[in-house]
Amino acid sequence: MHAKTKVIIGLSGGVDSAVAALVLKNQGYDVHAVFMQNWEADQDDPYCTIEQDLFDAKAVAEKLAIPFTAINFSKEYWQNVFQYFLDEYAAGRTPNPDILCNKEIKFKAFLNYALDAGAQYIATGHYVRKDDIDGRYRLLRGLDKEKDQSYFLHTITQKQLAHSLFPIGDLQKCEVRALANEAGFTNAEKKDSTGICFIGERNFKEFLGEYLLAQPGEIVTTTNEVIGKHDGLMFYTLGQRKGLGIGGRKNASEKPWYVVTKDLDNNRLVVDQNHNHPLLLAKNLTCTNPHWISEQEPQLPLNCTAKIRYQHHDQNCTVVSKLDNTINVRFEQEQWAITAGQSVVFYKNEECLGGGIIK
Q1: Catalytic annotation present for 317
Q2: pTM tops 0.85
């Protein structure tokens, strides 16, 4: 039993963190709950679910009879996550703020808060696992392959892993919902949150346009034919086919158009109707700020697998070289739409090794 071991869990209002709290309490931990508010929304904002999430989190804490506190991390979120998000889009890249939220908020600001409050651990509802071999912690994929979230946690450090628990990492999502129903949680069937919390279900283009000045320009083909107007390069990403507004052209093939590159110098969006255009295919990438969870530089060349986006199957690759703060990666097969600003994350079977930001 862990009766004297204090754990502070981040209760989001969702079913995953609720069941994580339940599992910890059943294991005998001294469980305390914190609801993290990371975004300041207007009261009449129809897209922000924070009030409902806070209500649901409180209900779970009351059901489990555990102490509950709401903490506002919106200042830290704005400075360390949202500003980066804006800067990356302004530079024509496609960032992943969820990764940075885990790095800067959940496993930094929240962890520091918990340790200062006398907790030995924080806990989250992530579908990941950890183990340690000879005092070295490893981050492992969640057993539910469809829900595994190790991709989003690849920046975690040894100290952070040492003070973190992932109570549902060895459960399937269906088991999590069953436990929530059995416990009588009102959020047992609550829909999983998708996307970025501050955007919600709102129109992404409208939201981004509130913070960044869009610079409309020409849409051109790979043969330099002007075929339309774009609303601003920041609104488009590599491989995008929907929302381009160039369908139904006279005497044109009905095949869909794809964004194949962004010509930042001339503010042009370059498109083509070939899904496998050479500009969309590459065997190599470079990434910056590589982070290794073991905190030990691997011996190169390193043969492993990698994901270039969250919804991506593992691909065989070799980390071939490192120069300053950049590493070069070569894939066995050509990869489609390797996107600057996204993260490449490396694996050895079940173990998440780390990753970096695609350059």
Answers
A1: no
A2: yes
Sheet with 226-230, side-by-side order of all strands: 226-230, 217-221, 268-272, 258-263
Among residues 275, 286, 279, 276, the alpha carbon closest in space to that of 308 is found at 286
Query: Which strands make up the sheet holding 30-37, listed edge to edge?
Result: 68-72, 30-37, 6-10, 121-123, 164-165
Same domain, 42 and 166: yes
For residues 156 and 100, state if they share a domain.
yes
- Residues 6 or more apart in contact with residue 101 via CB below 8 angstroms: 38, 77, 81
**Active-site hit among 48, 197, 317, 352:** 197
Tell me: do 268 and 159 sit in the same domain. Answer: no
Note if 101 is an active site residue: yes
The predicted-structure confidence for 308-357, as pLDDT tens digits, reads as follows 999 899 999 999 999 999 999 999 999 999 999 999 999 999 999 999 99
Judgement on whether residues 234 and 312 belong to the same structural domain of the protein: no
Strand-strand pairing, 281-292 and 326-336? antiparallel
Is 158 found in the same domain as 109? Answer: yes
Whether residue 74 has pLDDT greater than 60: yes
Among 101, 287, 317, 352, the one annotated catalytic: 101
Q: Do you know the residue count of the chain?
A: 359
Q: In the Cβ-directed half-sphere of 111, how many Cα atoms lie within 13 Å? A: 19
In terms of Cα–Cα distance, which of 78, 173, 181 is closest to 125?
A: 173
Residue pair 183/20 in contact (Cβ under 8 Å)? The answer is no
Q: Has residue 256 been placed in a domain?
A: yes
